[in-house]
């Protein structure tokens, strides 16, 4: 599953866009490069029923923003993304 597909799947499961999760995380102080995954994963599991894989996708976004490694961009593999920039505004708003 691509990184973007994880975020789209989270939106399907919760009804919340990645941007909405970013705002909720900021309210809890979950942001920045020194963020620890454990408390975030607990919150996401308890409040939204998200497992570790989906939670870690959001942890990455909370820590690093929309930019991801270009390692899989255009690779055609299972984890291939179309871009090294994630769309955070909701899958139905994607240009």
Written account of the structure:
- Pfam families: DUF4287.
- InterPro entries: DUF4287.
- There is one protein chain.
- The chain is mainly alpha-helical.
- The chain is built from 4 helices and no strands.
- The protein has helices at 3-14, 18-27, 37-48, 52-64.
- Helix 1 (3-14) crosses helix 4.
- The protein is globular.
Question: What tags apply to this protein structure?
Answer:
about 100 residues, DUF4287 domain-containing protein, DUF4287, about 50% helix, mainly alpha, 4 helices
Overview in brief:
This protein is mainly alpha-helical and 95 residues long.
In total, the number of strands is 0
Helix count equals: 4
Beta fraction of the residues? under 5%
Q: Give the low-confidence spans.
A: none
Radius of gyration: 13 Å
